Amino acid sequence: MKILFDTNILLDVLLDRQPHVEHAALLLSKVERSEILGYLCATTITTLHYLLHKTLGGEPARRHLHTIMALFTIAPVNRIILENALSKKFKDFEDAVIHESAVHMGADSIVTRNLKDFKHATLPVYEPLELLCLTKILPSSTQR
């Protein structure tokens, strides 16, 4: 199962945001164990760096990003993705870019805490608990 993670899921874990950290951390552990294939939009990395640097400082931000980039495949953002995102009906351009990056790289779905931000998505979009339940139901051979 190829899942593109929205930025907020990573921030929940990295900044220990309660009460969301538990489900987000379980999803990251599934990526770590290769039970699901985790993807991040390239713009997520820059957003994470900005927010982590501001909150934790430069060196901790870099350490976290190295760890994240070792776990996840980075989905590209290029001109086609940006042009497609501009043509979508998303209220937030960043969410449209995340969606189009997921579509372009062949994701099965997106995981986010903000379902309303993805109401125009053409891919299935799950909240963390929904995705955790779904991955327990699917046989492991279909999750890869």
Distance between the termini: 5 Å
CATH topology: Rossmann fold
Over the alpha carbons, how many angstroms does the gyration radius reach?
14 Å
Q: Helical proportion?
A: 55-70%
In CATH, what is the class? Alpha Beta
Which superfamily, in CATH terms, is the homologous superfamily? 5'-nuclease
Low-confidence sequence ranges: none
Major sheet summary line: 5 strands, parallel
| SSE string | EHHEHHEHHEEH
Strand order of the largest sheet: 3-2-1-4-5
Number of structural domains: 1
Please count the helical segments: 7
Overall average pLDDT: 94
Overall strand count: 5
Structure classification: alpha/beta
Shape: globular
Structure overview:
By secondary structure, the protein is an alpha/beta fold. The chain has one domain (2-137): 5'-nuclease (Rossmann fold), CATH 3.40.50. Helix content is 56%, strand content 12%. It contains seven helices and five strands, in the order βααβααβααββα. The protein has helices at 7-14, 21-32, 42-56, 58-71, 79-87, 93-105, 128-137; strands at 2-5, 37-41, 73-75, 109-111, 125-126. Strands 3-2-1-4-5 form a five-stranded parallel beta sheet, with helices on both faces. The termini are close together. The model has no long low-confidence stretch (mean pLDDT 94).
Comma- or semicolon-separated keywords:
144 residues, single chain, Rossmann fold, alpha/beta, 5 strands, 12% strand, 7 helices
